[in-house]
Amino acid sequence: MDEFVNATLLIGGNMGDSIELCKQATGLINKYLGNITSLSAFYCSEAWGFEAEQSFVNQAIIISAGLQPTELLDKALKIESMLGRTRGGEGYSPRTMDIDIIFYGNEIIDTPQLTIPHPRMHLRNFVLVPLCEIMPEFVHPVLGKTIEQLLRECPDNGEVKAINNVKK
Which terminus of the chain is less hemmed in, N or C, by CB atoms within 10 Å? Predict the structure, then answer.
């Protein structure tokens, strides 16, 4: 593929040393998925959709990707596995690493394997807050609203706090 697309990812987890795992993930993302062009701060939030003892750490990333969306997904899943992620069971659960593709340029993709933009991103503060840091004016290609607008209208009342004094 000769063209590069700005792909937006959200990484995070709540098992082990989540900040260190996010740092490792960004290194692997830069190596295997595309050059990182923007990184948010690390953010801490409670689990969404299930109860968990440990809070989540998340970070938004924009990469210049030379991969097709399904290739990007396959490689992201491999990175999750490299960082100790095991998948199984139904519903949400604790994890060492989760890499979600939030946007792939302005493309709209809806297949059984992959939906972009991420179908629930506009309902989750832990996604919108870090995105708002690095791309507040980006317009959601389906909803037609900026990330800033989506954050203001988000029904999620979960608290999302920046983790200060941490080197990215």
Answer: N
